[in-house]
Design goal:
alpha/beta; 15 strands; Isoleucyl-tRNA Synthetase, Domain 1; Rossmann fold; 3 domains; about 500 residues
């Protein structure tokens, strides 16, 4: 039996997946910082890890999937200084930070639902786990890997590095971090209270005007960005769990700091497998405000953006994401979305033909090889582009049968249906077109065919030809025979 292989960023190797507990898998994925509407950069990770979760489900694992909501502690610039992102947005919109969190959490989850992404088993919020974060910080201080100064607590990277290799996940070397920090003006950066510039905040003292602050052993303050994920993953998955996921932009410093915090407190790397998806670009460029290419997901759905001439469905967006391997860069463009839409329609139509095919007892065309190839591709580090290529091959064979050039037995037809159901609909998670839409399309085409039939009987050949040419222009080919007229997408 082929085993699931996953690329582990920690080992930089493709590894056989072995769960810590038989038939159970614990997954922690870093969720959004909810201070704005979700954009295209927010969709790749959820889709990738949704496919992984669905694959594990199909392999009969019981999955506990935890994805957090960051609603405090993530400062502007992703460093230890500056304003909290939610607090900054709250001032702009003139409402409370927790209102900002609720508005954009709801907006994010609504987008996830539209893309058919399964809701997490647990969706913890950073603000709801302040006690756990304080307790974890106290443990790190007691172990000698953190220090308290002026109401703030910082992780002592040099002290930690004497026992554990700081930088093991990202490949960063402590000497390089020191050299880089030496070029900075620590006073201007507000770093003067740290022992070393590369130390990072576990707890920050709050100024009187700071809107989100809690009582702690070190005074009024708020948690650092990194400590929240360590505290919540330990609470819901234990000190040592199976998979930690996120984007490559989180690899350093966020995930590196998570490992350091957990090793400092529990003497163990929190996850066996660290899985990272690559970045998203738009028309070959990194998303940036200055380029006006940051497309919000809802803008893609309704087409309300300068880079788009029309909207695209959530199914097209999901299918487009899965056409690239998760470890490669994904480039969005309208042309790519149009191509994905066309490809999706091809597969949709091929699937619909399976109910219309006439089974032959003398089977000459099989799909067993495709079933095996798709399973192998999924188990080979979620190779969804190969899966989709094999689905297109299945569609090609179905069209050959529909054209009368090949034959399927009833068993092969059922196997083809099973492939679409298990992989296309199930693991890839592509929602079907509504049956109402499919029925309406069939009814319109049959209506036009009947009008054409009447026109031919009345020798109104111009009208008959006009209908045939029109249907052909929109990709529908009519096939006349003694038994009547059939049609297919061409």
């Amino acid at each position: 039996m082929i085993k699931l292989k996953l690329y582990n960023t920690l080992s930089r190797e493709l590894e056989n997946f072995e769960s810590i507990h038989p038939n159970k898998v614990g997954i922690y994925v870093c969720g959004p910082t909810v201070y704005g509407a979700p954009h295209l950069g927010h969709v790749r990770g959820p889709i990738v890890f949704d496919v992984l979760r669905r694959l594990l489900d199909s392999l009969n694992y019981k999955v506990r999937f935890v994805k957090n909501i960051t609603d405090v502690g993530h400062l502007v610039g992703d460093a230890d200084e500056g304003e909290d992102k939610l607090q900054k947005q709250a001032k702009i919109e003139q409402i409370e930070p927790m209102e900002i969190a609720q508005i954009y959490t709801d907006m994010y989850n609504n987008v996830m639902d539209k893309m058919n992404i399964l809701r997490p088993s647990i969706e913890p919020k950073a603000s709801g786990h302040i006690i756990e974060q304080i307790e974890l910080i106290q443990e790190i201080i007691e172990k000698g890997y953190a220090y308290h100064v002026n109401g703030s607590v910082y992780f002592d990277v040099d002290s930690y590095n004497k026992k554990y290799p700081y930088g093991e996940l990202s490949g960063r070397i402590i000497e390089d971090l020191v050299a880089g920090a030496a070029t900075q003006n620590r006073t201007l950066d507000g770093q003067e209270e740290k022992r070393n510039p590369h130390d990072f905040a576990l707890w920050k003292k709050a100024s009187p005007e700071h809107l989100m602050q809690w009582t702690s052993p070190w005074g009024k303050g708020f948690p650092g960005w990194h400590i929240e994920c360590s505290a919540m993953s330990v609470k819901y998955l234990g000190k040592h769990f199976d998979i930690h996921g996120g984007g490559m932009d989180l690899l350093f410093p966020h995930h590196e700091c998570e490992i350091a915090q957990c090793k400092a407190s529990n003497d163990v790397n929190p996850a066996n497998y660290w899985i990272h998806h690559n970045m998203v670009t738009i028309n070959g460029q990194k998303m940036a405000k200055s380029l006006n290419n940051g497309i919000k997901v809802e803008e893609l759905f309704d087409g309300n953006h300068d880079l788009l001439s029309r909207g695209f469905s959530p199914e097209v967006l999901r299918f487009s994401v899965l056409q690239a391997h998760y470890r490669s860069t994904l480039d969005f463009s309208e042309d790519a979305l149009i191509a994905a839409e066309k490809g999706l329609k091809r597969l949709e139509f091929a699937e619909s033909l399976l109910d219309k095919l006439e089974a032959k007892s003398n089977n000459t065309t099989t799909v067993t090889d495709l079933d095996e190839s798709i399973e192998k591709a999924l188990l080979d580090d979620l190779n969804t582009p190969i899966v989709i290529a094999q689905l297109f091959e299945l569609a090609r064979r179905i069209n050959l049968v529909n054209d009368g050039n090949e034959e399927f037995s009833s068993q092969t037809i059922e196997q083809a249906k099973s492939i679409f159901k298990k992989y296309f609909r199930g693991i890839l998670g592509i929602k079907p077109l509504s049956s109402e839409s499919s029925d309406m399309l069939n009814q319109v085409i049959e209506f036009l065919i009947n009008i054409r039939k009447t026109a031919k009987m009345e020798k109104n050949y111009p009208l008959s030809d006009q209908i045939r040419i029109y249907l052909q222009s929109i990709g529908i080919e009519l096939m006349d025979s003694k038994e009547g007229t059939n049609w297919k997408f061409n």
